[in-house]
Amino acid sequence: MENLPAWALWIITAAVGLSPGLAFFIVGAMSRSLHRTLWASSKGAYQLGPERVRNEAAIAVPLG
Fold first, then answer.
1. pTM reported for the whole predicted model
2. How far is residue 27's CA from residue 33's CA, in Å, rounded to a whole number?
3. Closest alpha carbon to 47 in 32, 31, 63, 59
4. Average pLDDT of the chain?
5. Are the C-beta atoms of residues 59 and 51 closer than 8 Å to each other?
6. Rounded CA gap, 51 and 14, in Å?
7. What are the Cα distances from residue 23, in Å, to 15, 20, 33, 54, 59?
């Protein structure tokens, strides 16, 4: 480290300082993506109202 120029030390310092923030940002983005993906697949099982009745009727009643 003693042989490095001053500008290189500043780059290393900035990279080390920004690493925790970048890690939290990446983890947050991954968790939001997983949350949306996992909840999107289970929303169909808990669907209420006329849309669910229409979907079940379309499956249960054969066409002509």
1. 0.46
2. 10
3. 59
4. 76
5. no
6. 54
7. 12, 5, 15, 45, 46
